[in-house]
């Protein structure tokens, strides 16, 4: 069996692992990687038509964003994922396509390809082992966002467990992943987003967060809570439901649509659905630019995308409150360098109306995360005891931290492949090796096509509206999603800069 890393290896973004057995080709996830100038698709991929199946862990675009692109090249195989992932991925993919069109980023696919993705998505039930061609697959709850799964593939006498993004701690929104439920695992591929970091106690963090909202609203200030649309927005709602507030709560941006999808879903792994529904009925939704401008001047709690204030309605609220010392911006996740959120967090500065401005309102950050900590990754590996351990989905420092620890264990082979490398596993699992992945000389990789569509060529290096304090409208509310990882890309927040 060969495992080829087309993305998400020594990086966060464009997760895509090809699993090859004799005669069959499968992929685990098919994501996009966002960066300042645009985005990248999985690398060194060829002949999409030959794929036999796709296994999708969850809806975040760094796992699903490449699907329409592959569909454009006539990927004619089923895409296995659970129903909630199917629903949420469609919302995110449609939105990212809309933004790309507005920004004249040529995504190399069209609406027909988007529809094809939806058609090929097949709903899978958790904890049920299903045969498909020569393999078997089982989806387990990953505890990361609604619908998220860790996927086990049994092929050629080996069992491979791909964690996807996961969390083994209970959050307000999700039942945690349980590695003990995975059974026997020969090859464990684990994410390492927080490989070098531990996380604050979530319950304590929640109390501090709610106390802060309380203090600001009681003193007559406004509270802006920038959120990621999937997961974080719902979790913040559940937290707020625990207390009564003297001011209205508003929700803006894509968070509303995703929250409704989560409430309408039937996942047994979403906790506090009743709390969510209770608060959802009390929240006021922003319906127009005028509505937004009117409420932004009034006392209130504003939950809005994008999570790092790269455009989106969140920046609009900031424009209204940055001079008010009584008001506060409460960031809810890690902020990537170069974003308004990062500037606010570190320098109390933000690009407002195109100018880098010192804000006078209060700024605080509460590091809620959907991933597991370094200690949790180690605990998982120890519990599962795989013969082969492969580390992915993390920047090099985070991968290295787990790699250094795991190589000292002595009972498993450890690999930290880079993009374009592959791990070969013997049928009996006794020997394995890492090498550079190379197809024959006549193979045309998809990335050769990609360069023709490279968004950087279309940017013209001109106005970087991602940094401008533009006034968002309905159409551009989430445009930052393409240029900067924000609500679509919950995890880029966990980069250690
Ligand atoms: Zn994720
Ligand atoms: Zn991810």
Task: Describe the protein's architecture and organization.
With 497 residues, this protein is an alpha/beta fold. It folds into 2 domains: 2-197 and 370-456, 4-Layer Sandwich (Metallo-beta-lactamase, Chain A), CATH 3.60.15; 202-368, Rossmann fold (3-Layer(aba) Sandwich). The protein has 16 helices and 25 strands. It has an 8-stranded mixed beta sheet. It starts with a strand and ends in a 14-residue tail after the last helix. The model is unreliable at 451-497 (pLDDT under 50). Bound molecules: zinc ion (2 copies). Residues 58, 60, 144, 165, 490-491 line the site of one zinc ion (ZN).
Shape: globular
In whole angstroms, how far apart are the ends?
36 Å
**In terms of structural class, how would the helical and strand content be classed?**
alpha/beta
Q: What top-tier CATH class of the largest domain fits best?
A: Alpha Beta
Q: How many strands, what sense, and barrel or not for the largest sheet?
A: 8 strands, mixed
The small-molecule ligands in this entry are: zinc ion
Query: How many structurally independent domains?
Result: 2
Strand order of the largest sheet: 8-7-6-3-2-1-24-25
- Look at the structure and name the CATH superfamily of the largest domain: Ribonuclease Z/Hydroxyacylglutathione hydrolase-like
Could you tell me the radius of gyration in angstroms?
A: 22 Å
Low-confidence stretches: 451-497
How many individual helices? Answer: 16
Mean pLDDT: 87
> So, CATH architecture of the largest domain?
4-Layer Sandwich
Helix content: 25-40%
Beta-strand fraction estimate: 15-25%
Give me the CATH fold name of the largest domain.
Metallo-beta-lactamase, Chain A
Total strands: the figure is: 25
């Amino acid at each position: 069996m060969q495992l080829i890393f087309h993305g998400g290896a020594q990086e966060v973004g464009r997760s895509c692992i090809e699993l090859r057995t004799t005669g069959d080709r499968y992929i685990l996830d098919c994501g996009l990687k966002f960066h300042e100038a645009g985005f990248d698709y999985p690398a060194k991929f060829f002949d999409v038509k030959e794929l036999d199946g796709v296994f999708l862990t969850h809806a975040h675009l760094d796992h699903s964003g490449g699907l329409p692109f592959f569909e454009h090249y006539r990927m004619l195989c089923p895409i296995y994922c659970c129903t909630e992932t199917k629903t949420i991925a469609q919302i995110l993919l449609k939105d990212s396509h809309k933004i790309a069109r507005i920004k004249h980023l040529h995504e190399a696919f069209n609406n027909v390809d988007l529809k094809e993705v939806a058609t090929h998505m097949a709903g899978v039930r958790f904890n049920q082992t299903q045969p498909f061609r020569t393999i078997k697959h089982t989806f387990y709850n990953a505890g990361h966002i609604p619908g998220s799964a860790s996927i086990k593939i049994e092929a050629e006498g080996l069992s491979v467990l791909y964690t996807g993004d996961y969390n083994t701690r209970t959050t307000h929104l999700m039942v945690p992943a349980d590695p003990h439920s995975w059974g026997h695992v020969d090859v464990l591929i684990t994410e390492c987003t927080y490989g070098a970091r531990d996380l604050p106690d979530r319950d304590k963090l929640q109390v501090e967060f709610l106390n802060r909202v309380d203090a600001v609203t009681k003193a007559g200030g406004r509270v802006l809570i920038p959120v990621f649309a999937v997961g974080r927005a719902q979790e913040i709602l559940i937290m707020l439901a625990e207390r009564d507030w003297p001011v209205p709560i508003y929700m803006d941006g894509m968070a509303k649509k995703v929250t409704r999808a989560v409430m309408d879903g039937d996942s047994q792994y979403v906790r506090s659905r009743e709390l969510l529904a209770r608060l959802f009925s009390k929240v006021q939704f922003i319906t127009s630019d005028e509505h937004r401008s009117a409420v932004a001047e009034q006392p209130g709690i504003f939950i809005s995308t994008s999570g790092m204030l790269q455009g989106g309605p969140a920046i609009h609220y900031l424009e209204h409150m940055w001079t008010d010392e009584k008001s506060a911006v409460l960031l809810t996740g890690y902020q990537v360098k170069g974003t308004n959120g990062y500037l606010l967090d570190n320098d109390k500065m933000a690009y407002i109306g195109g100018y880098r401005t010192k804000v006078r309102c209060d700024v605080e950050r509460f590091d809620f995360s959907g991933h597991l900590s370094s200690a949790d990754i180690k605990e998982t590996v120890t519990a599962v005891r795989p013969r082969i351990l492969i580390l992915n989905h993390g920047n090099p420092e985070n991968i290295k931290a787990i790699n250094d620890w795991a190589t000292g264990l002595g009972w498993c082979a450890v690999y930290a492949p880079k993009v374009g490398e592959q791990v070969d596993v013997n049928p009996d699992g006794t020997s394995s090796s890492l090498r550079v992945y190379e197809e024959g000389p006549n193979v045309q990789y998809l990335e050769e096509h990609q360069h023709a569509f490279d968004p950087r060529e279309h940017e013209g290096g001109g106005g970087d509206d991602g940094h401008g304090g533009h006034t968002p409208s309905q159409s551009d509310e989430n445009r930052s999603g393409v240029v900067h990882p924000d609500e679509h890309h919950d995890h880029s927040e966990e980069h250690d800069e």
